[in-house]
Amino acid sequence: MNLDFPTEVVKEGKTSVVVPKLKAYVKEVWEYAPSKAPVFYNPAMELNRDLAVLALRTYQRKMGKEISVCEPLAGCGIRSVRFATEVEGVRKVVVNDINPQAAELAKLNVERNKLTEQVSVANEDANLLLSRYAARRKRLNFVDVDPFGSPVPYMDSAVRALRNGWLLALTATDMAPLCGVHPKACVRKYGGKPLRTSYCHELAVRLLAGCLTMTAAKHEIGVEVIFSHSTDHYVRVYAVVHHGAKQADKSVRKMGRILHCFTCLHREMSKGMFSPWRQDCAECGSKLNAAGPLWLGKIFDEEFCALMEKEVAGMNLGQEKKIHKLLSLARIEAEAPVTYYAADKVCDKLNLRIPPLIKTMDELRAAGFQATPTHFNSRGIRTDAPAKTVTEIITKLVT
Ligand SMILES: C[S@@+](CC[C@H](N)C(=O)[O-])C[C@H]1O[C@@H](n2cnc3c(N)ncnc32)[C@H](O)[C@@H]1O
Ligand SMILES: [Zn+2]
């Protein structure tokens, strides 16, 4: 195969693959190498890929069936090669990228790993490819949409290409719209309004899941979010699709708004797509701001997170430590209240130093409230305490 650009071999998970030699494409240290190379490869997304392999392994084991997988925007193919080698029961993987050089490189990686019987590589638009799997008998068990920016342009075709009861994974890297820096872009793409709050990453997951819910509902398909995670650079949602108008209605009922008061930090949920919502803050009377419509349902399934935790042992994943930490937090978060308080942001507002997180949570619990940490923010506390109580407890601890 004739690749006329600098490459190198890297090892990730149980596989070694050929990738563009990123150092050859950056002249200055601040340049973002993955998008300069002729084929996309980002070593920093190892955690994202490790979790994808883990989630699929866990779900396949839970369902106990042979599966077909599709990665419609695959870059050099590293993720799909990993699905084929690290997940049991994978009968077929369809790898695709619109960039001909990416498809060539993915083919090379499939051949190097002796996977040609199981893995096919295509070179076309992701929506064209996915549409071919929309017919009842052709549908797939897992679709992983991992694009540049927003996955929304591929959502319809991804949902239609999935079998009833099977799994969809979506990455969104367009954090500026989702976190409220470009609210108009978020409304356009996701059909919901973001807010620049200290818990905007949770809002980003809920806006993405909300958009998926409404997209799937058009096709009379319901969704159930079983796992999600976030970093500064992207959010990721794993959802199971359930066919049927009733299932779609059930999911739509989990849509609503999160109301936020920028004066006192009070927040509350307003359930329903079209229900009227409170305009003034119940705690201080200031005007409330509304985020959404967005997904108000669960964003982690405790049982699935526990199964993932069990599965991770023995997989020898590169990011195992981070995964353990993330999963143990996600399990706690699964049953915790919606939204969190970022202690540093509360203290900035009150001009106070930051109290120890554990002490703050202990005090909240002693006062009779729930209080748990969150993977979204190392200084975040999920609690059902009123904003006034949170600020009083923080003030008491540092003055
Ligand atoms: C973020 S990269 C994929 C990274 C890959 N999933 C991984 O885990 O390493 C996004 C890829 O989408 C491809 N792409 C962009 N638009 C596309 C389209 N309409 N159809 C198919 N692929 C597309 C790009 O060429 C790029 O390789
Ligand atoms: Zn208020």
Order of helices and strands: EEHHEHEHEHEHEHHHEEHEEEHHEHHEEH
Stated plainly, the CATH topology of the largest domain is called Rossmann fold
What's the alpha carbon Rg, rounded to whole Å?
A: 22 Å
Q: Which parts are unreliable, with pLDDT below 50 for 5 consecutive residues or more? A: none
So, CATH architecture of the largest domain?
Answer: 3-Layer(aba) Sandwich
Number of distinct beta strands:
15
Write down the overall mean pLDDT.
96
Q: End-to-end span in angstroms?
A: 68 Å
- Helix content range of the residues, please? 25-40%
Secondary structure class reads alpha/beta
- Looking across the biggest beta sheet, what order are the strands in? 5-4-3-6-7-9-8
CATH superfamily of the largest domain: Vaccinia Virus protein VP39
What does this structure look like?
The strands form four sheets. Strands 5-4-3-6-7-9-8 form a seven-stranded mixed beta sheet, with helices on both faces. A three-stranded antiparallel beta sheet has the order 11-10-12. Strands 13-15-14 form a three-stranded antiparallel beta sheet. The protein starts with 6 loop residues before the first strand and ends with a helix. The chain is an alpha/beta fold and 399 residues long. 38% of the residues lie in helices and 24% in strands. The relative contact order is 0.10. The radius of gyration is 22 Å and the shape is globular. It folds into two domains: 9-295, Rossmann fold (3-Layer(aba) Sandwich); 342-399, Phenylalanyl-tRNA Synthetase, Chain B, domain 1 (2-Layer Sandwich), CATH 3.30.56.70. S-adenosylmethionine is lined by residues 40-41, 45, 49, 72-75, 78-79, 96-99, 102, 125-126, 146-148.
